[in-house]
Amino acid sequence: MTRLEIPAQRRKSGVPRWPKATFGADLGASLVVFLVAVPLCVGVAVASGVPAELGIVTGIVGGLLVGLLPGSTMQVSGPAAGLTVLVASAVDQHGLAALGVIVLGAGVLQILLGISRLGTWFRAISPSVVQGMLAGIGLVLILGQIYPVGGLAQPETTLAKFSGIPDLLVAMVTTPAGISGLALAALALLIMTFWKKAPQKVRLVPGALAAVVITSALAVLLALPVHKVEVGSLLAALNPPAFSAWGSLLDPAVLGSIVTFALIASAESLFSAAAVDRMHDGPKTQYNKELVAQGVGNTVCGVFGALPMTAVIVRSSANVQAGAKTKLSRVLHGGWLLLFVVLLPGVLSFIPTAVLAALLIQAGWKLLELRQVAVLVRENRSEAFVLILTAGMIVATDLLIGTLAGLAVAIVKTAIEVSRLSVKAEDGAEQVRVELGGNATFLRLPRLLDHLEKLPAGKHVHLDLTMVRHLDRACHQAVEHWAAQRRRSDGTVEVALPASVG
């Protein structure tokens, strides 16, 4: 184990002994990550339709618990914008009481996947499906969060969100709440966009935090008529599953939500790990251990009835860029979150929901990655089709159906691409020689039979399949059947099979 990880030597109490040389860097990075995490934890919770405190609880668990577990060094876990749509749908369908059961079940499933060493298999999912999934989530996130900007409640269905846009636009320019919310959201987006151009010392404060502080101060000073975040006691907000809630495990829809939460959260965490590993030179992520760590975190979040967690690329990249060296930075960030919500909970009640909506709109826009989509359209249209189909299906239906549709199309596309079959025919005076190459699978069977049935009658046919890399049972039987028919009619046939078959 290197100095960048927890030292192998431990005190008798079991508490890790952190390297003194890196303590200062980790302390500074933890403060930066904490400042990034506060508005995002609250914003994700509000957008998910649950109390804001539950987002903070998930951030605390992600720091203090998952931060200590093996798997990754630099990743920071907490509530993620990518799960907002899924959580809101689950709460709407099954109620807030069932959220803890679903999150706990997803955590246990993640632990089982990690113990079974299936973590590395998540890297085998088609990148176009993952990108389409994130783009679809981004579109749904944007479509939903434009309503709090205008001071209106978010419609429940996608169709209602589209059909309600005219009324939303009218509210934004005619009602005091709509005008104020639009102005604050626009200002927040401008601050976050241009903050990167500020002097380096100023940029030590995260742009998202600066946007929240400035716009919240303006809302208070000008007494703007906007809805603000409602924050209560952290302990009162905890939502442990009641005994009666466990009966929901018999509901197939709840079981489906558990599987969906586990798969989406795992995929997002492990894809984030791959991205974060490219940003630093320290120890790389151990995927199966990281999956177990995420599972443990979600299990505990489920016990508290809090939001599900994933490794979050925004917080993780901020951690790396702030100069973190060990896991201590992410553990400390969880401690700062706990101290903040215990000592200064009233500060959150000054934040307008329109500003939090602006933060999530920006997060949704980043998930779209339009530049990469444009590059993909130019360079690989079939992959771009999978991406667009996945995103479109997620917007039109839901996250699970859209992702499964994208995976199915990606599998079919790959099967077709790897089943390329070449057919070369040389027509002589008395003999026709046909040479096949590539992969002869059932997907290419119609094309193969078309070629064979067009061969001239009355000639000897030499069918050479020795260069075929893979000959499946369907093609093998079809070739034998065709050869038998030809021998019975008007000619002789000689078939040379691949060595693996013959």
From TrEMBL:
<feature type="transmembrane region" description="Helical">
    <location>
        <begin position="204"/>
        <end position="224"/>
    </location>
</feature>
<feature type="transmembrane region" description="Helical">
    <location>
        <begin position="27"/>
        <end position="47"/>
    </location>
</feature>
<feature type="transmembrane region" description="Helical">
    <location>
        <begin position="385"/>
        <end position="412"/>
    </location>
</feature>
<dbReference type="Pfam" id="PF00916">
    <property type="entry name" value="Sulfate_transp"/>
</dbReference>
<feature type="transmembrane region" description="Helical">
    <location>
        <begin position="128"/>
        <end position="148"/>
    </location>
</feature>
<feature type="transmembrane region" description="Helical">
    <location>
        <begin position="168"/>
        <end position="192"/>
    </location>
</feature>
<keyword id="KW-0812">Transmembrane</keyword>
<feature type="transmembrane region" description="Helical">
    <location>
        <begin position="96"/>
        <end position="116"/>
    </location>
</feature>
<feature type="transmembrane region" description="Helical">
    <location>
        <begin position="336"/>
        <end position="365"/>
    </location>
</feature>
<feature type="domain" description="SLC26A/SulP transporter">
    <location>
        <begin position="24"/>
        <end position="390"/>
    </location>
</feature>
<dbReference type="GO" id="GO:0016020">
    <property type="term" value="C:membrane"/>
</dbReference>
<keyword id="KW-1133">Transmembrane helix</keyword>
<feature type="transmembrane region" description="Helical">
    <location>
        <begin position="54"/>
        <end position="76"/>
    </location>
</feature>
<dbReference type="GO" id="GO:0055085">
    <property type="term" value="P:transmembrane transport"/>
</dbReference>
<keyword id="KW-0472">Membrane</keyword>
<protein>
    <submittedName>
        <fullName>MFS superfamily sulfate permease-like transporter</fullName>
    </submittedName>
</protein>
<dbReference type="InterPro" id="IPR011547">
    <property type="entry name" value="SLC26A/SulP_dom"/>
</dbReference>
<feature type="transmembrane region" description="Helical">
    <location>
        <begin position="253"/>
        <end position="276"/>
    </location>
</feature>
<dbReference type="InterPro" id="IPR001902">
    <property type="entry name" value="SLC26A/SulP_fam"/>
</dbReference>
